Amino acid sequence: MASQVKNAVEELGEIFDDEATFEASSVDRARPIPRISIQAFCDDQRVAEVLQFAAEDRRLSKTHVSIHMGGIAAAIGHYVDSPTPNLIIVDSALRGSALLPELDKLAESCDAGTKVIVIGRHNDVLLYRELLRRGVSEYLVAPIDPMALMESISNLYNNPDTDPVGHVFAFIGAKGGVGSSTICHNVAWTLSEVLKSNVTIADLDLAFGTTGLDFNQDPVQGIAEALAAPERLDDQLLDRLLTKCSEHLSIFAAPVVLERDYEISPEACDMVIDVVRQNVPFVTVDLPHNWSPWSKRILLQADEVVITATPDLANLRNAKNILDLLKQSRKNDSKPLLVLNMANVPKRQEITLKEFEQALDLKAIAVIDYDCETFSQAANNGQMIEEFNAKCKATEKFRDIAMKMTKRKDMRTEKPAASPLSGLGPLLEKFKLKR
Description:
Elements: H1 2-16, H2 24-29, E1 37-42, H3 45-55, E2 64-69, H4 71-78, E3 87-91, H5 96-107, E4 115-120, H6 125-133, E5 138-141, H7 146-157, E6 167-173, H8 180-194, E7 199-203, H9 211-214, H10 223-228, H11 235-241, E8 243-244, E9 249-252, H12 266-277, E10 282-286, H13 293-301, E11 304-309, H14 313-329, E12 337-343, H15 353-360, E13 364-369, H16 372-381, H17 385-388, H18 393-406, H19 425-434
């Protein structure tokens, strides 16, 4: 049984791996689900396979999912002597007249607070209304796909009356020194200025982070204090630890102290980022170029991943390794975003953009040319590129990255078209003076 489910899940992975299958809207609607227990009882093996595929998605990584065969009858028998979990999913081929009495029997064993999702075979509005009247949380009609299921579960545990959980964007360099932090900081700043939405930058390069320098800030406290005691982090403590750089941008700065030993656990990172994303719409995570369990966890759990690389062989190899890992572990997500930085350096042998993209099977969303003078002066001034030189070519690139990353359009108004008579302006003025 287990091997059959595993093989079927792999086949599903190939089917749903098609990038066109996962539209941005459906992916965005399925938000991360909190630490809950989910137990499913299936009549159909194919439904069990879809549930298993969904259980392996990053959005359900904090949940505990168990899948059983036998349908609603098995669920009734199981809960006679066992407590019910946070969520029960029952798959049944029964029609309404036979299904409703069975659900009534199941309800007798359900603890208060347990939610129920029913997967049926009949698209019946009257049945749907009757199920809702009996307290069933959701009714889905088979066949179902993993994203629809995850969206339904997400809707049950994300309060529609509160602000949605913020998006997490993880920035990582394919190699050290490729400018991933610079890209992260400039894109985050641009995001806060263009969309006028609150953005927090989390600098996780605790020993050598540059967020404070890049924004000309010298915070006393920052992300290290939150990671040391993540269970203490709440909204009030978060406000004290964040450093406000502008109306919409705050930074969670790194301590940059070498006397301290930084022991970070993946669980601590999860807890800290969860608190931050509950308070702002966008969180950009500046990951250091060192591989660890916690950096891997953040990379796999982020809503979007941005890989920064320069056009050389080492970057190509490392970017390919990162892409392979993400493709294997994030089957329900779109491909990462690729930024080629410091391109077209004079007299340097480079891999062409076309060759780089072909080797990765991934199009770059931006190519930023080497501009040592502008970038170094902006860094020394503690400014973002657009603050230092709004006419710099990289400014448009950062806007493009920010808009593509958030799947938005730049709504800046275009200049009105020139009037056909505009060139006659000076002549008309002279004519008026003569009169």
